[in-house]
């Protein structure tokens, strides 16, 4: 759709819209609650408490990139609850902030709850003032009140309520405290409240008056807010008014003349005024002791951020969290147990004999229990190989995420990432990519520039193995430290080199890094488990159909002879990089899923076909090799077909060339593996 | 050389016009002067300007004097806005009076004090002085960039001067606004500082754009 038209539809509330509303009122029984606020203030936890369903919660700003919806009941009334990505202001910069504003505009929520981090009242109030200004029905929720109390702060909520003219509640959402009174406030919310009005400097006020009288259309936001956004030069709103208003020229003139009266940009003046207001309100309601004691978590935090101690801590976290827990415990101990004992001894023999007895027809038998059968291959790969690895990864990731360690990691790694055209913020998609690159590709949305998003997507497709793939490969390479080292160094090398080249070749603004560092928190077991569960569930839903589809396609291929044809075609590049012909199967699998391909290697290694130099070559080539179908389709969705195809066209030959060179180098150096 | 206020104003206008429209940018008419005005006579006497037909031209001596006048004016603005926190609308008037009080040599001290600011609050460039080129900072500075602060120092944000307006907006939305008290936690590998009860990390480029009045050392 024409984006401008779409925008117009979004922001303009035409008359008929209001009529619709009137008729809707009688039918509309479901009231809508929107959760809006700065990143990392507990919107998602609150969402879970209000709906009883689950949105991913973390101690990392910007985890929610999409709008999550759920239903909840308060007393007898049903509510729809909408969770939005974190936003610092109503003037959006990143895509996810845009999502939050659009939602407020489009959906006309009956109540808007703004949870804030109570200890940062002063910093969070400017957004409250903006929401009030926009004419939205706001309830302010002082969340994480336990943390502010721990700092010795007290907040006079009665006074705050008076100052703002809106309901104010206190909660500790993670343990459910205060949720009841929040629900009561939602139920009894009335539009007769008299919210505070921020008065700006005289010239701004008179400009707002002039603009309001010039605007003839009806908008979903108050005209005052539209005026303020115009003065702040919001490109979306300017475009909208340009298209929709006959007297736009006059509006433009007002903006220009007002700007002339100030030495700073109007945006700066307006924001500073809100900041002053917030400061004033905060000083009226807030008391706290001057000397804040240095707590244990604060001292630990400093150690994590100081490079001298921080880098070793980072390496320890990666070694124990990823290598030991996921690579060794998940990919070896658990996989071996499931593969050999559960499937090898009990499940497979049982299923095979069951099928042989039930269905005497050989082709059907092959479909289910043959070499590439749905059950013997698809289900086994998914449950015995992939499930334990992915679960251990997400447990580790959730713990790291909930402690608040990730932003500290980001600030340590920022300088390295700058060299490859990214900034520290990209540490999230990259680490998440070690779990599931498809998920990570979606999360690249939180990066600010298009250039960064493309580079991150590209590197995720090329050099970041997902947990299942990595786990299986680590399992295969285990017992051979030199081989593991070669694999690791080569991957890091490719990641940095290709990142550096892309960043050098690609035009665009250099990235900048700024990030809030949340306090360290003790992760809650229930939250970690819940989060792991949702992520693994998402993952399996993604994997299962593809594994089964893979088995079916191979079966069809075998029946028609196509399978062998493709295999023999693929065997050329495979032999060319020094691998046995049989390895072609793994690469064919790799087209479906990265981990599927790795699992194919696993079988080859177990049966003794693959070892030594060819094994390392295969591991490296397969890691670099095409992104799986899911990641590819997400890349198309997020970055467009052109980018996705160019990425794939680069990667396939590149992977084989690297494999070829590696094989050649290792052989000519006479390396013994 | 003691110029009258009017003469200094004329120099400023001539300099601004020549930057915008070239050397022939000013006529007596366009700057609203008459060749018999006292100020014009004064400037001719000091060989700061010459008249060629109707055009008013700055001599090379006049050019450097005009630069100094502009520099004083814009430094005065910075001082008023950042340190004395005079309200924006008043700045222009006060600055005009203030600049004439700043005599030669004094502007360099102000410049050092303010950490050699590159632009005035309106965003116009401030001509460099001797002190900026030599970078000798005998007088200890009041205004420094975040990147020049040491760990554990405290200060109040004076102003933020970013390359793009989007970044300014983002920083302000995060609560990094003029007047906020900050405490520097570390400088390497990223700059980390405390503002209110929140810690924020930024890279060096941004740290160079945040100007701070030091309150402790």
Plain-language structure description:
In chain A, 67% of the residues lie in helices and 6% in strands. Chain A folds into two domains: 3-187, Rossmann fold (3-Layer(aba) Sandwich), CATH 3.40.50.300; 307-510 and 526-668, no CATH class. Chain A has 673 residues and is α/β, with parallel strands linked by helices. Chain A has helices at 3-11, 15-27, 43-51, 95-107, 121-133, 145-150, 157-164, 179-187, 202-214, 223-231, 235-244, 248-260, 266-285, 296-305, 307-358, 362-369, 374-403, 405-419, 427-433, 437-443, 450-462, 467-477, 481-505, 525-560, 562-576, 584-592, 594-606, 612-624, 629-639, 641-668; strands spanning 31-35, 68-74, 77-83, 111-117, 138-143, 154-155, 168-170, 286-287, 514-517. The model of chain A is unreliable at 1-28 (pLDDT under 50). In chain A, α9 crosses α10 (223-231) and α22 (467-477) packs antiparallel against α28 (612-624). Chain A has 30 helices and nine strands. In chain A, the strands form two sheets. A six-stranded mixed β-sheet of chain A has the order 2-3-1-4-5-7, sandwiched between helices. Chain B is an alpha+beta fold and 217 residues long. Chain B has three domains: 5-58, no CATH class; 75-134, Winged helix-like DNA-binding domain superfamily/Winged helix DNA-binding domain (Arc Repressor Mutant, subunit A, Orthogonal Bundle); 143-214, Ferrous iron transport protein A (FeoA) (SH3 type barrels). Chain B has eight helices and eight strands. In chain B, strands 3-8-4-5-6-7 form a six-stranded antiparallel β-sheet. A two-stranded antiparallel sheet of chain B has the order 1-2. In chain B, a hairpin with a 2-residue loop joins β6 and β7 (198-202). The longest helix of chain B is centred in the first third of the chain and has 24 residues, at 60-83. Chain B is elongated. Chains A and B meet through α5, α13, α14, α18 and β9 of A and α4, α7 and β7 of B.
């Amino acid at each position: 759709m024409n984006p401008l038209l779409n925008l117009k539809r979004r922001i303009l509330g035409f008359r008929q819209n209001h009529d619709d509303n009137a008729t809707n009122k009688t039918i509309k029984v479901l009231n809508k609650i929107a959760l809006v606020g700065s990143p990392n203030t507990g919107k998602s936890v609150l969402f879970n408490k209000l709906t009883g369903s689950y949105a991913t919660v973390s101690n990392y700003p910007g985890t929610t990139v999409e709008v999550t919806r759920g239903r909840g009941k308060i007393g007898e009334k049903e509510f729809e609850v909408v969770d939005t990505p974190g936003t610092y202001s109503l003037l959006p910069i990143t895509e996810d902030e845009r999502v939050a504003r659009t939602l407020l505009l489009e959906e006309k929520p009956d109540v808007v709850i703004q949870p804030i981090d109570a200890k940062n009242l002063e910093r969070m109030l400017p957004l409250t003032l903006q929401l009030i200004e926009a004419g939205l029905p706001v309830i302010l929720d002082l969340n994480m009140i336990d943390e502010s109390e721990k700092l010795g702060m007290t907040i006079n909520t009665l006074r705050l309520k008076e100052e703002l003219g809106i309901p104010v509640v206190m909660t500790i959402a993670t343990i459910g405290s205060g949720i009841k009174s929040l629900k009561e406030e939602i139920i009894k919310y009335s539009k007769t409240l008299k919210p505070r009005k921020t008065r700006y400097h005289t010239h701004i006020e008179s400009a707002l008056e002039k603009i309001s009288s010039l605007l003839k259309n009806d908008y979903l936001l108050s005209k005052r807010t539209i005026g303020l956004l115009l003065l702040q030069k919001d490109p979306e709103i300017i475009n909208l008014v340009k298209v929709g208003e006959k007297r736009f020229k006059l509006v433009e003139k007002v903006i220009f003349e007002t700007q002339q009266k100030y030495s700073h940009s109007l945006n700066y003046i307006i924001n500073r005024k809100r900041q002053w207001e917030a400061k004033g309100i905060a000083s009226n309601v807030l008391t706290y002791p001057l000397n804040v004691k240095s707590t244990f978590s604060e001292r630990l935090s400093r150690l994590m951020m100081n490079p001298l101690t921080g880098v070793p801590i980072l390496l320890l976290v990666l070694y124990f969290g990823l290598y030991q827990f996921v690579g060794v415990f998940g990919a070896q101990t658990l996989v071996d147990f499931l593969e050999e004992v559960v499937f090898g001894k009990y499940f497979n023999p049982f299923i095979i004999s069951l099928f042989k007895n039930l269905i005497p027809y050989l082709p059907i038998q092959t479909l289910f229990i043959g070499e590439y059968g749905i059950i013997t291959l698809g289900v086994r790969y998914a449950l015995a190989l992939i499930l334990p690895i992915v679960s251990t990864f997400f447990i580790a990731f959730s713990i790291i995420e909930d402690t608040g360690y990730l932003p500290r990691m980001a600030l340590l790694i920022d300088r390295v990432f700058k060299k490859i055209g990214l900034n520290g913020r990209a540490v999230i998609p990259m680490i998440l990519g070690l779990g599931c690159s498809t998920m990570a590709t979606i999360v690249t949305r939180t990066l600010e520039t298009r250039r960064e998003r493309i580079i991150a997507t590209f590197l995720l497709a090329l050099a970041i193995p997902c947990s299942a793939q990595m786990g299986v490969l680590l399992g295969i390479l285990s017992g051979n430290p030199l081989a593991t080292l070669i694999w690791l160094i080569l991957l890091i090398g490719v990641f940095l080199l290709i990142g550096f080249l892309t960043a050098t070749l690609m035009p665009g603004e250099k990235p900048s890094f700024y990030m809030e560092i949340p306090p360290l928190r003790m992760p809650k077991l229930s939250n970690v488990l819940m989060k792991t569960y949702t992520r693994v569930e998402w993952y399996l839903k993604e994997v299962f159909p593809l594994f089964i589809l893979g088995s079916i396609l191979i079966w069809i291929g075998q029946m028609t002879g196509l399978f062998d044809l493709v295999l023999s075609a693929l065997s050329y590049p495979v032999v060319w990089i020094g691998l046995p012909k049989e390895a072609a199967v793994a690469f064919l699998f790799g087209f479906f899923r990265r981990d599927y391909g790795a699992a194919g290697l696993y079988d080859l290694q177990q049966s003794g076909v693959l070892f030594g130099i060819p094994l390392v070559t295969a591991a490296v080539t397969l890691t670099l090799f095409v992104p799986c179908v899911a990641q590819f389709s997400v890349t198309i969705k997020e970055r467009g077909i052109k980018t996705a195809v160019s990425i794939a066209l680069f990667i396939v030959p590149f992977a084989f060339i690297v494999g070829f060179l590696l094989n050649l180098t290792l052989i000519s150096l006479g390396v013994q593996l | 050389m003691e110029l009258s206020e009017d003469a200094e104003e004329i120099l400023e206008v001539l300099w601004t016009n020549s930057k915008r429209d070239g050397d022939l940018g000013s006529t007596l008419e366009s700057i609203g002067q008459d060749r018999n005005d006292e100020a014009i006579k004064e400037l001719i006497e000091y060989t700061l300007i010459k008249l060629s037909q109707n055009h008013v031209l700055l001599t090379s001596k006049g050019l450097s004097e005009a630069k100094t006048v502009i520099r004083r004016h814009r430094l005065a603005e910075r001082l008023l806005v950042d340190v004395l926190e005079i309200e924006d609308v008043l700045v222009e008037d006060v600055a005009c009076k203030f600049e004439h009080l700043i005599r030669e040599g004094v502007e360099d001290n102000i410049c050092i004090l303010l950490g050699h600011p590159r632009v005035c609050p309106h965003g116009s460039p401030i001509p460099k002085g001797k002190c900026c080129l030599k970078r000798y900072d005998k007088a200890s500075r009041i205004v420094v960039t975040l990147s020049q602060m040491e760990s554990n120092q405290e200060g109040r944000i004076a102003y933020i001067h970013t390359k793009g307006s989007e970044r300014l907006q983002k920083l302000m939305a995060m609560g990094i606004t003029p007047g906020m008290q900050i405490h520097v936690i570390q400088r390497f590998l990223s700059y980390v500082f405390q503002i209110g009860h929140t810690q924020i990390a930024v890279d060096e480029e941004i740290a160079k754009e945040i100007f701070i009045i030091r309150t402790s050392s």
